[in-house]
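Exam revision sheet. Question 4 asks you to relate a sequence to its structure. Input first:
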Amino acid sequence: MEPRPNPHVPPEWNEAARRIERDMRRTVGVIGPADSGKSTLAGFLFAAAARAGLKAALIDTDLGQKILGPPACVTMCDADGLSLAFVGTTDPVVGWRPLLDGVGRLAARAEAEIRIVNTSGLLSGSGRKLKAAKLDVVKPDLLIVLGTAPEIEMLAGECPDVPVLHLPSSPHARRKTDGERRGLRREAFRRHFRHASMVILDSRLVPGFQTGSLTPGLLLGLTDAQGNDVGLGILVGEESGGLLRILTPVVERPIHRITPGSLCLDENFSEIRNWANGKA
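Answer key, structure tokens:
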């Protein structure tokens, strides 16, 4: 089945979807500068593969500007629904190691014939090194590059055995301000917590917990008995008897581990600096 014609995407994107389906490229990495349409393209390719009757997975490795799920996580959508791997920050350099671990865990879990991997827009300095490390984890067999920049060519050159397909940026892509980016993250957090309730959990679920060590408002990752991250929590406060009061949408699944993040959210779900732990 061919992708449906869409006046909002370049015709080259339709040809790319046909090529992926025809050649059965198992893992496709999408790279490019910020605000070039990477997220739009990744979602388009994922939807096209699904319409073609293929088992597809979309892995979103951008921690801040999400197309899937809440910020501060690597997220994935496949036939089993939404999965996440908690990183605990929207700064990919601060969360380098858990970010790469999360990408690897979700990629390994994906039950899919085709995996589309969306990356962030960081291209220079540590951002380029991190993107190269992501690609090393997912091991794409096709790279799709949006836009042109020397950093992109250098990054593609680090995968000499991987075919590279250059596509035009989305005609509707535009540069977002820092304020717009913060607003989008705030709304994504708000959506995740829209059905949240207050729960009481044992502080012993936090590795190495010490009384008073966690700041109210701290973002938390909640993990089940199988080691899967199942959602986020916000620390409201400590109770007597070593208990923690947490706001979370995860109310029906037993929690076996609580992982503190490195950012706090205020009552409007805006990010604030975690002064107590000296982290952003």
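Marking note for examiners. The longest strand covers residues 229-239.
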